[in-house]
């Protein structure tokens, strides 16, 4: 394998261009990527859902419903090199987590991308009392 298409949820920043979210596995930070576009779209939907819940609880935190709906993030296509390096628009943006590299390495040679995948592993840190993974996003 020389490269593989993956998907990420990223913010288009003025200074850095696309800035994808990161996740932590075994206390190491990796670029948060997904094997399918649908998985990335589900993550974006979760982000928007969280913002809407905050809007309902505290509407003064936002400049109206449109502000709450506009998370500033988009689902974008990325490329993962054989060494795990993630490229967005040709720019290196970090490294894919071992769980993604392993899932791609185990794909049958004729398969472009898996039909269904659970790309998260148990050693990722979770927020206490929540099913959400810790995620950090570069400032926009």
Quick rundown:
This protein is an alpha+beta fold and 140 residues long. It has three helices and eight strands; from the N terminus they run E-E-E-E-E-H-H-E-E-E-H.
Question: How would you describe this structure in keywords?
Answer:
six-stranded antiparallel β-sheet; two-stranded antiparallel ribbon; alpha+beta; elongated; disordered C terminus; 140 residues
Write up this protein.
This protein is of the alpha+beta class and 140 residues long. The protein contains three helices and eight strands. Strands 1, 2, 5, 6, 7 and 8 form a six-stranded antiparallel sheet that branches. Strand 3 (22-25) and strand 4 form a beta hairpin. It is elongated.
Give the beta-strand count: 8
Number of DSSP helical runs: 3
Mean of residue pLDDT? 79
Into which percentage range does the β-strand content fall? 25-35%
Helix content: 10-25%
Class by helix and strand content? alpha+beta
- Overall shape: it is elongated
Biggest beta-sheet profile: 6 strands, antiparallel
- Gyration radius over CA: 16 Å
Strand-and-helix sequence, N→C? EEEEEHHEEEH
Q: Which stretches are low in confidence, meaning pLDDT under 50 for 5 or more residues running?
A: 113-140
Distance between the termini: 33 Å
């Amino acid at each position: 394998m020389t490269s593989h298409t993956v998907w990420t949820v990223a913010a288009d920043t003025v200074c850095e261009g696309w800035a994808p979210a990161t996740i932590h596995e075994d206390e190491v930070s990796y670029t948060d990527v997904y094997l399918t576009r649908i998985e990335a779209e589900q993550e974006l939907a979760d982000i928007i859902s969280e913002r809407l819940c905050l809007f309902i609880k505290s509407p003064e935190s936002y400049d109206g419903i449109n502000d709450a709906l506009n998370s500033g993030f988009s689902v974008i296509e990325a490329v993962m090199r054989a060494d795990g390096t993630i490229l967005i628009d040709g720019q290196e943006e970090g490294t894919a987590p071992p769980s993604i590299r392993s899932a791609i390495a185990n794909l049958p040679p004729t398969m472009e991308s898996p039909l269904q995948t659970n790309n998260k592993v148990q050693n990722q840190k979770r927020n206490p009392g929540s099913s959400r993974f810790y995620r950090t996003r570069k400032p926009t």
